[in-house]
Amino acid sequence: MSASQGPTLRELAVQALSSVEHGYDLLAPKFDHTPYRTPQPVLEAVTRTLSGLGPFGRGLDLCCGTGAGIPVLGAVCRERVAGVDFSAGMLAVARDRTHEAVDWVRADVRALPFAPAAFDLVVSFGAFGHFLPGERPGLFAQVRSVLGPGGRFAFPVAAPPRPGSLGYWTLLGFDTAMRVRNAVWRPRFVMYYRDFGLADVTRELADTGFRVDLYALDELGRRPDGSPRCRLVVATAV
Hints:
Keywords: Methyltransferase, Transferase. By secondary structure, this protein is an alpha/beta fold. The chain has helices at about 10-15, 20-25, 40-50, 70-75, 90-95, 135-145, 165-185, 200-210, and strands spanning about 60, 80-85, 100-105, 120-125, 145-160, 210-215, 230-235. Helix 1 packs antiparallel against helix 2 (about 20-25), helix 3 (about 40-50) packs parallel to helix 4 and helix 6 crosses helix 8 (about 200-210). The radius of gyration is 17 Å and the shape is globular. It starts with 8 loop residues before the first helix and ends with a strand.
């Protein structure tokens, strides 16, 4: 995070003790200067892979935040694109910083306010830790409902850190801290990224009416055993 432009420790603490929605409203002006924004190499790798599968018609960025994923849609969609998020603060920043023609919609993505088959491509970046495992099937069903036949739902998933590695202990520590915080403080702030396992998510997508394909994002490197550091999940509505 940028020391000069990113949030202070005090601001992060206030955010963490808020609800998810209000916390992101508070963080929005400095969000793009935090590690939570999707890195540009990830956005570029996803764009390259989707370009090989498109072009697409209408596109939606699910949990769009400040709009980092909108240029991805702009590169692969021929028609108008939209972004949906429940944080008014994040959407306000997105409107100010995005020059493309975008329909910005404030809504809870667990109840998408769009007509059936309204989109041909839905993307999402880094948002699924904010949903409990039991909420994911309903969320995936919502996405399925707004996709036309053959429409795609795409999102990157990083390989989990190796057990015992620094990344493993860092993620475990963060997860544990969030669970302790939610046990003693209200409102809850749901952010449990260790619960987002690729095998479970693939099964849940299939159960919701998707065919799932995985694409290695080779630009982002491979691990010592040769497996990709990041994959793009592409779920096709069947």
